[in-house]
Amino acid sequence: MIFVSLDNGSYREKKNKYSEFSQRLIMKPFRFNLPTKIVFGRGSLSRLGDEAVRLGDRCLLVTGRSFARRSGYLNILTEILEESGLKVTVFDKVEPNPSVETVYKGAEEGSKNGCDLVVALGGGSAMDAAKGIAFLLKSKARLEESFAPNEVGEALPLVAIPTTCGTGSEVTKYAVLTNIRKKRKEVLLGEPLMPRVAIVDANLLNSLPGELVAYTGFDALSHALEAYVSRDSTPLSDFFALEAMRIILGNIVEAVEGMAEARENMLYASMLAGIAINCAGTEIVHAMGYYLTNYHDVHHGLANGVLLPHVLRLELQKGFRKLDDAASTLGFENGTGLVKKIEEIADKTGIPRSIRELGVEESELDAMVADVLSYERNLNRHPFPPTPEDIKKLFIVAFSRRDSST
Ligand code: NAD
Fold first, then answer.
1. Matching CATH number, 37-205, of 3.60.20.10, 2.140.10.10, 2.60.40.10, 3.40.50.1970
2. Cα–Cα distance measured from residue 345 to residue 121, given in angstroms and rounded to the nearest whole number
3. Could you please report the per-residue DSSP string of 170-194?
4. Of 164, 218, 225, 297, which is best to mutate to test ligand 1, by the most ligand atoms within 8 angstroms of its C-beta?
């Protein structure tokens, strides 16, 4: 069941009007591959053994430093895997925004124990570290020589089990790893990184604190909107992006408040948004957010959540009308109506109104702009590749409090 409650009474009328004029899609060539088997539903964790045993004999179970052990899930997963006949080695040392060093350590552990399968339990951090480890265990290459724009050609099979509702990493071809010395996010990219199986079980979100539902939910919303405006978007990626937006806008507030059905909806929507970024990528919001994470330890999704409304307003100011199309499809008057809705839910879910509240100072402005410009791949996907002045202007606006009255 999709639990959606968009509070716009005239949705149907506007949708019909929209459909009359906008039946024709702007087609372009695309390639779509989703090799991931998705096992979705409450209780689907019990399928882990059956799925994993088809993929290997010796499993490296990769997870973070606290949640899995504290919640008891580490024991539950180990038991399920062992009862299915797998030998299990645990690597539970993944930190938020996993570093390249952690991935090497995990690979060493996997190699010592002859692992031929990786299982990831956690948020984007654990899943991405697991992807990096799966790559190193198969290819023996160095991470530093393999980051995008290079594409990796091989990796061990991976089963991904998300416990947050944001990154969609359980279905993406990306692993985002941090180079701590350079204070930089690097991306490992390639279809072999796409998990063979994603077990998507909303029971795992029961203990997720409301603020992490908000932060990871805003990450998923950023994915949907960035994929939608991306130069690499196609009608198929728009389909996933729009559905993700619709579900997130209708569920995020209740999900943050703790409603179980709304959380399950968010988990589903974040997976759809992951499929959208597989096709169309992320762009300026992520490029700007990386600075806040790398230099101020701001949660990835929170950084995106604070920046997203400012970027959308700039896109509208520059006359980028595709946002009006999204707004119309979703039942809003125009793009500004959609952005106001996003600002309203940001207020309701505790997303700060300014980057000053995150500890960032104006004296950092030039360094911030230079850092963003270094994420060229993201910026090039933007409908109008932003100039240094655009980025500076965006950060200056983001220092002042978000104002949704206009
Ligand atoms: P996270 O994985 O860093 O987890 C954040 C915190 O939540 C951790 O302390 C973790 O222990 C805790 N946690 C996780 N699940 C929990 C639960 N159910 N209950 C209680 N606590 C729980 O956060 P995230 O937002 O999921 O992932 C962020 C990372 O993902 C960043 O490194 C980001 O760059 C990356 N990312 C990757 C992709 C991709 O496609 N691979 C896409 C977007 C973001």
1. 3.40.50.1970
2. 29
3. TT-SEEEEEETTTTEEEEEE-GGGS
4. 164
What CA dihedral angle connects 295, 121, 253 and 300, to 10 degrees?
Answer: 10
State the pLDDT at residue 23.
64
**pLDDT for 257 beyond 80:** yes
pTM over 0.85: yes
Structure confidence by residue, pLDDT tens digits, 337-385: 999 999 999 999 999 999 999 999 999 999 999 999 999 999 999 988 8
In the reported structure, the alpha carbon of residue 164 is separated from the centroid of ligand 1 by a whole-number distance in angstroms of: 6
Residue nearest to atom 23 of ligand 1 (CA): 123
**Residue 100 confidence (pLDDT):** 98
CATH fold group of domain 210-399: Dehydroquinate synthase-like, alpha domain (1.20.1090)
List the alpha helices (DSSP H) in 281-364: 284-296, 300-317, 322-330, 335-348
Percent of the chain at pLDDT > 90 equals 89
**Nearest alpha carbon to residue 321 among 384, 263, 397, 261:** 384
Q: How far is the CA of 261 from the centre of ligand 1 (A)?
A: 21
Residue 11 has pLDDT above 80, yes or no: no
Report phi then psi at 355, rounded to 5: -75, -15
Residue 328: C-alpha distances to residues 21, 313, 397 (Å)? 11, 16, 26
Nearest to 276 by CA among 173, 178, 177: 173
